Amino acid sequence: MIAGRYSLDREIGRGGMGAVWLGRDEVLGRQVALKRIGLLPGADKADLARAEREARLSARLNHPHVVSVFDFVADDESDARWLVMEYVDGTTLAQIIRRGGPLSPDVAAPLLRQVADALVAAHAAGILHRDVKPSNILVDRSWNLKLTDFGIARIEADASLTQTGLLTGSPAYLAPEVVTGGRGDQSGDVWSLGATLFYVLSGRPPYDVGDNVMGTLYRIVNEDPPRLPEAGSLAPLLEATLVKDPSQRWSMAQVRDFLSSPPEQDQDATQVISVVAPPVTPAERRRPPTRLLLAGAAVLVALVLAGVLFAVLNNDTPKDDTANPPSKQPSSGPSTQAAATKPTAAGMESFIRDYVAAVSEDPDTSWKMLTPEFKRESGGLETYRRFWDSATNGRVLDISANPENLSVSYQVHFDNFKNGPGPTVLDLSFQDGQYKIAGERTKGFVPAG
Q1: Which pTM was predicted?
Q2: CA count, 13 A, side-chain hemisphere, 312
Q3: Domain with 361 in it: what CATH number?
Q4: Rg (Cα) of the chain, in Å, rounded?
Q5: Which member of 47, 89, 106, 131 is catalytic?
Q6: Which of 193, 264, 293, 324 is buried most, with the most CB atoms less than 10 Å from its CB?
Q7: Contact 135, 115 (CB under 8 A)
């Protein structure tokens, strides 16, 4: 028990200054995350100063996309200090990209907008974060992003941190003026968010550090910022954030506003990607006795704080799903499909969107969208109903159809249903202008029969 109030459960990760534990506030009866500030030889005072700074600055921010800090307590027995924080049941943005690969601009925009909004609030309060990077962005099961680790943040009126404090930042995401020893201002966070966007879109930071940190710092200062051909509609944002002259960068408010409504891409040029769904522990997975359609795949190891889901992608128009919930209108089944002489990608994608909408509203209707063979493989109607009984609000997050082999690969999210890491791969049949689901080839799928 810490300070007679907080109990520890298990270590769930590592923060910028020490181990992070899942714990419980026994007074308020809620889960919390506790970051242990270790007393490292020769650096104890600096670590404690950083912890106190994080507690103080985070406490000044009351924002839905900033991890709240509740308390800063001392443990008399170990002489350690603990930050008591909001527990986010999620993973980091860095882990999502490492597992699932880069995101398309349409997927990335509504996610990074949340971080930009948090930084707008921080800057309005006179707070600079100074270590914005993918591993300091947590993502919960509803795809809400939260900025954490204000350990080297400072108030704009504060003196610059020592060189030791500077080096705790991430070289790959540091602005050139900070690398050269400058104090930096809000534009430094703008650069770092631009570098984070670069990583999200490409799967790599704009400057690879490796073992040669000094070489990386030299390139940041002396080379032109890298550009990213696959940035698509977000290319103007990278050009406006990753610019050497701080005075020429956009403000964080401009970044947020751009991410709220980026220019549309030509649909043919839109990048198709596979999005990682939330890692879940075996106890959390909702599985029937047999594996059925869209049941998921292998269980991912629960990390710092497990799980996440994405904002809706609606055809070629980016949309923040938390602000605009998708329609729940059920499909009327195969009869709604317009007759066609041959399968098309658009028709196949429309069919799957109809199926996802129907399966969470009326499984009897979606059942009719399976071939007789796949109905048997799925275990029959009653088994199918039981499997989908709690799934609601079905949303297709990303989809790619291949008319040549009648296959569809897509990522889906249902409320009240534990989704696997995906993507799901389905085989369709096409007869008399109508599509039906003929089979599933998702990794880990086991037929009911």
Answers
A1: 0.57
A2: 19
A3: 3.10.450
A4: 24
A5: 131
A6: 193
A7: no
